[in-house]
Design a protein that fits this description.
The chain is an alpha/beta fold. It has six helices and nine strands, in the order αββααβαββββαβαβ. The longest helix has 15 residues. The radius of gyration is 15 Å and the shape is globular.
């Protein structure tokens, strides 16, 4: 996983002083790195019963859609407010540097569907916890969580401990 880790750049003091932002867009620029990322994530979930992949806006879309194709499932987006045209539900949540809101279509999942949740990074776990809450509200069962990057110092696993978590790389505090 060193190849993947080496393609992720760190931007100090973004979006505010003291934050070390792990930027996966540089990973996405590299065709081999992006392919390897999707292949490794798909390999981790082949053989598991996954009915649908859910990606969290926006980098979760970039990862989730090709992962859904690789696993032979459909894809559901969890979006920021005002982006979904149909009937939807939403939830407010805390970020490590502010607050935000996520929404999902109320008919996005059939009751009991086993869902693989995907995002680029787990930091404090707030974004994914909110997304999992929405999936469960519309009847989905969160089977697994998948991330490219984990920041273990921020203890995001603590908020998500009831779910199995898969990550490709970790960045400890700098």
């Amino acid at each position: 996983m060193d190849q993947i880790k080496n393609l992720i750049r760190t931007i100090p003091n973004f979006p505010k002083p003291g934050i070390m932002f792990r930027d996966v867009t540089t990973l996405f620029l590299d065709p081999q790195g992006l392919r390897l990322t999707i292949e490794e994530m798909a390999k981790a979930f082949r053989g598991h019963k996954i009915d649908m992949v859910v990606g969290v806006e926006s980098r979760g879309f970039i990862l989730g859609a090709p992962l859904a194709v690789a696993l032979g499932t459909g894809f559901v987006p969890v979006r920021k407010p005002g982006k979904l045209p149909g009937e939807k539900i939403g939830v407010e949540y805390a970020l490590e540097y502010g607050t935000d809101r996520l929404e999902i279509h109320t008919n996005a999942l059939e009751k009991g569907m086993r869902v693989l949740m995907v995002d680029d990074l787990i930091a404090t776990g707030g974004t994914m916890a909110a997304a999992c809450h929405l999936v469960e509200q519309v009847g989905g069962e969160v089977a697994h969580l998948a991330f490219v990057v984990e920041l273990p110092d921020l203890k995001g696993r603590d908020k998500l401990k009831k779910y199995p978590i898969f990550t490709l790389v970790e960045f400890e505090g700098d």
